Amino acid sequence: MSVGDVSKRILLGRKLRSSQLGETLLPKRIALPVFASDALSSVAYAPDEVFIMLAIAGASTYVWSWKIGLAVAVVMLTVIASYRQTVHAYPSGGGDYEVATVNLGRNAGVTVASALLVDYVLTVAVSISSASQYAAGAIPVLIGHEATVGVIAVALLAAMNLRGVRESGAFFAVPTYLFMVAILGMCAYGLMRLLAGDLPDAESADLRIVPQEGWEGPLTQIGLMFLLARAFSSGCAALTGVEAISNGVPAFRKPKSRNAATTLLLLGLIAITMMMSVIVLAKQMTIRYVDPHHLEQLRTSSGAVPEGYEQHPVISQIAAGVFDHFPPGFYFVVTVTGIILVLAANTAFNGFPVLGSILANDGLAPRSLGSRGDRLAYSNGIVFLAGMSMLLIWVFDAETTKLIQLYIVGVFVSFNLSQLGMIRHWTRHLRTESDPAVRRRMMRSRAINTFGLGMTAVVLVIVLITKFLAGAWITILAMGFFFAVMQAIGRHYERVELELAADEQDKVMPTRVHAIVLASKLHKPTLRALAFARATRPNVLEAIYVSVDPRATNRLLEEWDERHLDIPLKVLHSPYREVVRPIVEYTQEIRRASPRGVVAVYIPEYVVGRWWEQLLHNQTALRLKGRLLFTPGVMVISVPYQLRSSQAAQERGRLDEVRVHAGDLRRGRVTSRDSERQVDEP
Q: Transmembrane residues, as ranges (predicted)?
């Protein structure tokens, strides 16, 4: 086993057979934290964004916070009800992309795919950046290094997902459930204290909020509506991640659609309960929260806030107040909140690779995205997502407020096209369905999707109007870029498929085969290549030697004559000491002289067993093959010669295949007799 194999096994674990794919499917108790962690974690920043937007006009507008929360909850319930129809109608895992492609056409499907790809990358960037901010608030030494912390967190998260969906899901399940317990427990205890009349004020309750420039006077009706629309659009960040379940249906255990629909319902009920509880408690505890880049809005009774004032997130302030006599409760809430924000990105790490594999199978993405890795995960998609997310975190310095402006545009584009596609889906099936019960069910589903389209369309318009200049234009450009790239990839694969299609001309035999054997020395690899080339019985067979040193050339000619080889040796003189160019030019001359013939170039190569030995051999052969591959009518044949080190590597691989590993007997891969036989072997 090579060093690379050992490293991969330590990092990722033992390889899994393709037949073991069923062992990686998820029960509902694991699927909920795997696919819902993103939507649940939005409780940690969506309320913050609502209060930040309302604070633009001062604290008096906080009275609208719970109403905005209710509006977001209504939209979330509508979207979840709509996606419950989708997972039943399209359980293959294509989600919004499949719905749009089947019902609205390829362009609509590519639009949805580009929107989701951007949204998944932003999901990781926003979640990890928010977690970095929480970590810096808890550990002062990390202040100013949030981007570095975020990049490291993404790398660790990617490594966990490369181990497989089931392993990462089991690892993430406990923190996700702890987060639910922490937030719901904190809110329940806080509401109990509210009813009892002893709920304390938040640490920021004594501060005043000065409206931003241009918002100082009384709000007009239009100004108030615009402000509420901005707050509502920011609060809709809570809806991100809902679509991941529709893309992850194949990862559920059977019955897949029913389990996915149940998980969706649980996600909606838990997320809405948590979000509304946090908003209500924040309002009752008189929290004052503004944009971290506009702390000058905050005022104390004596003037501006002190230099270096640290504004804690909303959940942190609520936990500090609710558990004012129980510090462990505060630290528990803050700790699991920071952890869940890291793990929230896991939703994207499950959705993005699956979507990438579907796009690859449809010819809209590189084929490598459709390949499963050693642990049956789509490893290339995971690595690509991690790289893009790291870049965003580093460029935006892990500032959540900046990244949040790029958020949710893509997901609401996919929401709208998905709902429109589902309406067409039910309409098409209603034309042919005659069973009254089935028709009633279809009409009910179409009504749900129609209402969902109306709601999500309104939200999309609001988001575009309120967030376009704040950064949403970057998201739209990114979506356009992915759209153009996928269309270009699709056209490329279509051209290649047409070009490779077999026809009658492919049966025509070449008029002649001119075989060339490259000879650098007269040794065993050259003699083996000559023997193999002769066995193919070409029309012409000759050896080629490029002369760069007259003494070496004369020595080779003498050895050739001494062995009485009946194959002619042609010497190509190279005054500029080039080796590759003379051979390429010679093959091109032969090809021009016989356009219907074939030139077969046999290249002797050494097979070595150590990676560093490869650096010492075969370099000229690699360059030559790279040039000849672009020459029409030229076939390149490698003739391997195994050195002793290759035999040692082969022996190591054979021993590794027959070795019994820990757990093989329990998994049924070997019998007890095999295990005993290996123990007895010296």
A: 63-83, 104-128, 134-158, 170-192, 222-242, 263-282, 330-355, 376-396, 402-426, 447-465, 471-490
pLDDT digits (tens, 9 = 90+) for 89-125: 888 766 788 889 989 999 999 998 898 888 888 888 8
Burial class (CB in 10 A: 0-12, 13-18, 19+), 177: middle
- 489-521 in b/e form (b: 16+ CB < 10 A) is bbeebeeeeeeeeeeeeeeeeeeebbbbbbbbe
In a 3-state reduction of DSSP, which class is residue 522?
coil
SS (HEC) of 247-307: HCHHHECCCHHHHHHHHHHHHHHHHHHHHHHHHHHHHHCCCCCCCHHHHHHEEECCEECCC
Residue written as token pair 């900046």: 402
Q: Are 414 and 96 in contact (CB under 8 A)?
A: yes
So what's the architecture of 511-642 in CATH? 3-Layer(aba) Sandwich (3.40)
Write down the domain spans for the chain.
24-495, 511-642
Q: What is the pTM of this model?
A: 0.68
In degrees and rounded to multiples of 5, residue 600 shows phi and psi of: -105, 120
Query: What is the per-residue pLDDT across 514-560, written as a single tens digit (0 to 9) for each?
Result: 999 999 888 888 999 999 999 999 999 999 999 988 898 999 999 99
DSSP 118-161: HHHHHHHHHHHHHHHHHHHHH-GGGTT-HHHHHHHHHHHHHHHH
Whether 464 and 472 have beta carbons less than 8 Å apart is answered as yes
Extended strands (E) in 347-398: none
In this structure, whether the domain defined by 24-495 belongs to CATH 1.20.1740.10 is answered with yes
Contact 449, 418 (CB under 8 A): no
